[in-house]
Amino acid sequence: MTLLDPKVQQFIDAHVGANLTALALRKNPFPEVDWTSILNQIAAKTKAKDKLPTWFATPGIVYPSKISVEQTSSEKTARYKSGLVTGQSLIDMTGGFGVDDFYFAKRIDKVVHCEMNTELSDIVKQNLGRLGVANIDCICGDSAQILKVLGRPFDWLYIDPSRRSESKGKVFMLADCLPNVPDLLDFYFAYAPNILIKTAPLLDLSAGLRELKNVRGIHVVALEGEVKELLWLLEKGYDGPIGIETVNLVKDGAERFGFEWGQAVTPSYGSVQKYLYEPNAAVLKSGGFDQVSAQLGLEKLHPHSHLYTSDQRIGFPGRSFEVKQVIDYGKKEMKQHLEAKKANITVRNFPETVENIRKKHKIKDGGTDYCFFTTDLNNRKIVLICAKI
């Protein structure tokens, strides 16, 4: 009996979402199969339910550790990523659980999945068979050596460097990751004219650009308001403008905003008007605050507030609100309008935290009012009481 035995699979399916701590104390109903492995399958499949619905819905899928499932791309971000590549061939230098490659294979004729972990490589190969994918070759071993042995060019090289270092713990600079992409770029370009790199959301764009060369584009990808990954597109010999694309993947589509890195623009500033706009996390991560104002014809409330306003409502890459009232941030005004009431609070360029404001003025979380505590052009501390659109 193995993990793929129908009875074991039925047990795993029946306990998706179960309390694993309590389940672990129970007697193993399948003594021939390691109990810890069964529990791991339950934990990983529970994580995959929303993140990897195709895998979750496919019978006979074997999962690696729960951590591996947590670290892999979601299907939504993998699908977006696949839209950035075209051509005949792609090699994935850090294959992992193979979610990205599953989607690359829908657009690329032949994909090579490299993975050093023998067990994980075997799992991916078996799962791809279950998923009906025939154009991905799984090769176990060091990806640099695999490149040399194969000795052929690829249209694309994809890499997701490990952000954990034995000596430094969790790292974010590319030179500290494994493999060291900045040091290996010339080697990689010898095999592929196009390179796609996935990095941690916490990597600063300026820092990444200092480490890399031939960057022609950066995609800041958020999922439901949380930045999940930065995608760096490199082209051999490229030395032109760098395009920044921000995307927030939401249930009914995507919020997009783009601009050219380093291009000087002049934002407009003004006082609060009828509508207020708060950029999504991808836009905030990109740093394109002045470009939002210049491109969309909006006025900023303050150079450091990153809130925008207009008299006419527009489509916006983020949240939109109708301003009901603007008050000074003072004891008297707070007592009159917000004290001991319910409100959703956001602070932008403001000297107090949300927690302090709630505690000081006895404001409970929730309700229909959205209150922005911020600073205006005259450095006056104000509160914008709004209704979400």
From TrEMBL:
Domain of life: Bacteria
One Pfam entry name: PG_1098_Fer
Location of the PG-1098 ferredoxin-like domain: 275-317
Domain THUMP-like: 318-388
InterPro entries linked: PG_1098_Fer, SAM-dependent_MTases_sf, Thump-like
UniProt name for this protein: Uncharacterized protein
Organism listed in the record: Flavobacterium caeni
